[in-house]
Structure formats: C-alpha cells, structure tokens
C-alpha cells in the first residue's frame, strides 16, 4: 500500500486495512489558508491537489534570509 493508491486496490492488498475518515471541510480551510500565505510570496500559486501547491519561486532569489552557512 502506498500514497495515491486507489482505495479498492489498497484494500485488496491489505484486507484488514483501517481507513481513517477525511474531514474535507477542515482540509479545504487549511488549503485556503496555506494558499493565502503562499500568495504573499509568489504571484503564481497553483493548487495541484488538496495538499500540494506549485509556486513560481523565480523572484524569491533576491530575498535575504538569516541562515547559517552550509556545511
């Protein structure tokens, strides 16, 4: 069983599979909140799925962060 596998296939591979409920409304609210944050950083934000986004990060290279030097 792996991420993204259709439920019927997962259940056929693992008959004792316990499936947790999905709270779609709560997931949608978090999705929207995360999108709002990402839109502050990039003008191009695409929701790929309920839990994935793609952003245009080409202009983020000009930002300066206080990060320790790489090893």
Written description of the protein model:
The chain is α+β, with helices and mostly antiparallel strands. Helix content is 35%, strand content 13%. It contains two helices and two strands. Strands 1-2 form a two-stranded antiparallel sheet.
List the helices and strands and how they pair.
Blueprint: H1 7-13, H2 24-41, E1 45-49, E2 52-55
Antiparallel strand pairs: 1-2
Which structural class do you get from the secondary structure elements?
alpha+beta
Order of helices and strands: HHEE
* Count, helices: 2
Helix content: 25-40%
How is the main sheet built? 2 strands, antiparallel
Strand percent estimate: 5-15%
Distance between the termini: 37 Å
Strand order of the largest sheet: 1-2
Key structural traits:
alpha+beta, two-stranded antiparallel ribbon, 2 helices, elongated
Summary, kept brief:
The protein is an alpha+beta fold and 71 residues long. The chain is 35% helix and 13% strand. The chain contains two helices and two strands; from the N terminus they run H-H-E-E.
């Amino acid at each position: 069983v792996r991420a993204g596998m259709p439920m019927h296939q997962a259940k056929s591979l693992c008959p004792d599979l316990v499936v947790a409920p999905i709270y779609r409304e709560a997931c949608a609210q978090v999705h929207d909140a995360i999108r709002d944050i990402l839109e502050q950083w990039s003008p191009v934000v695409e929701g790929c799925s309920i839990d994935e986004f793609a952003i245009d990060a080409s202009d983020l290279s000009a930002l300066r962060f206080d990060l320790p030097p790489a090893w």
